[in-house]
Sequence to fold (338 residues):
Amino acid sequence: MFSMDLIQFQRLFNKEPRYRLEQAKKALFHDLIQNWQEAVVLPLSLREELNKKWPIEISAKTFVSKDRNTIKALLTLKDDLKIETVLMRHKDKRNTICVSSQVGCSLNCSFCATGKMGFKRNLEVWEIVEQVLFFARYLKKIGERVTNIVFMGMGEPFLNYQNVIGAIKILNDKEGFNLGARHFSISTVGIVDGGIEELAKEELQINLAISLHAPNDELRSKLMPINKKYPIKKILNAVDDYIKKTRRRVMFEYMIIKNVNDSEEHAKTLVRLMKKPLYFVNLISYNPTGIFKSSPSSRIKKFKEILEKDGVTVTQRYRFGEDIEAACGQLVAKDGRK
Ligand code: SAH
Fold:
């Protein structure tokens, strides 16, 4: 499950006593050091070797929203490609990191800016972990910590399944970053084989979210071309199996776009799909990416009321970081954009 670079990391400890690797992991994931020189429990020669062969410095350009609750980091990878990661600081002290799983995305959903840059490549396990470490180090300086990790950044996590799960395992590992499984969420367009089906088999208590966005296949296919391969019924069948196996709740994300999917009729059709135990709907307002418009809040309220009146559980997503283009669907990793 470990990626090549982590295997290399462990190899560096082959000739060391067993406890050295544990000390190094503690320094990296718990003390959140930025450079091996800071790991003073390790002998100087080992620190120097680690710095040379497995450096841990992470450099990024950051953008802070006006209300200071959202910080976006633009990270440059070793092949000079760029990805974006977002920290959202909630009022109740939760700190959520929104991580990317791919550079770009191949799915080309009409409303999402990431799709417009095309697909470049999958991220490696360590490139996913680093996004979290970057903000964990930042938060530590102000006496806070990462409380939640969501795979809702650039890319489709289930098209990079092995590396996403590999990263989660390290971040969840007691000897690694040690964040409880329930604090992770994966959002997917609804990849069934090699995605929802695979996750149901893992013994991991993480959260699953499905980007639904439309209550019928005709509209969903227009918004999300992948719907032709994974239409709504196929996804819901896989989700039902997942729920049977895991007994976990599943979130359905529904982004409200003006005059596209926000009518009473749409809400009523959605009710018919969503009225099931352990299903719940997360309403998201559309963040401007060019083509569509967001619905007025009165329309969103009405939509929500229809769902609730018919017994569907609904939550609403707070919109973070729109002014720095860090909100859902706005991540494109263009340097110097702002
Ligand atoms: N590919 C995965 C992970 C990305 S998650 C997925 O689609 O689920 C990003 C979430 O933001 C998804 O629910 C996505 O549909 C949504 N999103 C994309 N563009 C958006 C926009 N312009 N406004 C609001 N949400 C958007």
Q: What stands out?
A: The first strand starts at residue 60 and ends at 64. The mean pLDDT is 94.
